[in-house]
Amino acid sequence: xxxxxxxxxxxxxxxxxxxxxxxxxxxxxxxxxxxxxxxxxxxxxxxxxxxxxxxxxxxxxxxxxxxxxxxxxxxxxxxxxxxxxxxxxxxxxxxxxxxxxxxxxxxxxxxxxxxxxxxxxxxxxxxxxxxxxxxxxxxxxxxxxxxxxxxxxxxxxxxxxxxxxxxxxxxxxxxxxxxxxxxxxxxxxxxxxxxxxxxxxxxxxxxxxxxxxxxxxxxxxxxxxxxxxxxxxxxxxxxxxxxxxxxxxxxxxxxxxxxxxxxxxxxxxxxxxxxxxxxxxxxxxxxxxxxxxxxxxxxxxxxxxxxxxxx
Length: 311
Hints:
Blueprint: H1 5-15, H2 27-42, E1 50-58, E2 61-69, E3 76-82, H3 96-105, E4 109-113, H4 125-139, E5 146-156, H5 158-173, E6 180-184, H6 195-199, H7 208-219, E7 243-250, H8 254-266, E8 271-280, H9 291-307
Parallel strand pairs: 3-4, 3-5, 5-6, 6-7, 7-8
Antiparallel strand pairs: 1-2, 2-4
Helix pairs in contact: 4-5
């Protein structure tokens, strides 16, 4: 399917902005552009009962999280959310509207994690932070108004990578118990050798050169072959929580997400891959731009609601 008109218009606008491509930007520039673009793309903030900024114990000191509590009567499911941005950009603020919308739509307590970013803190710093925050959310479930046995991990792009890695780590470390994983166009393999990498290398928002820029900043001298960097390379995916993998048709990461869902199913894990036509990487957060964002949010919320249902 061709690009949706609103997506085509956005890409044309970005192409004419005069900005250098991502792989020619400094880290400071990339972070500034991300913050600058977020309000116009994110849309309005959904109402929730409360939003609380907290710090929790992390492997390198205090770790910031933002806790969203929906309207209604607890206990709620808990969704630990990891933002995207190639492990280099992204903030609690730039993902605030999405986390509010997710908390309201499920409804669930959403714990958004401000993990350490690269290149100041390279892999596996973000992994360690993501696991620590998930462990904290599980242990503090009752205090948060949630139920420990109704815990999910979620994230988009690099955040989807962290969600998948945390699910693998929780399985291999004996906890915390995770009931579901929501992976939105996740980064799953440093190899970058799929058909969608080749077919969408340029001109579709996230380019191959841009994704390599992110990987280089994240990994530094590491080769990225370890499963906690590239979950698609994990030898065995059995025993993982059920998953919904949301992908975009015109995205270099599309094929690795669908391959991961297929491998989960082959290992006996209930996993659905949902491909959204006419859109590109990043669309899930662009609720002010495209109706596909709201459709995907509602699909994600329904999957979380079903998986996390219970007393």
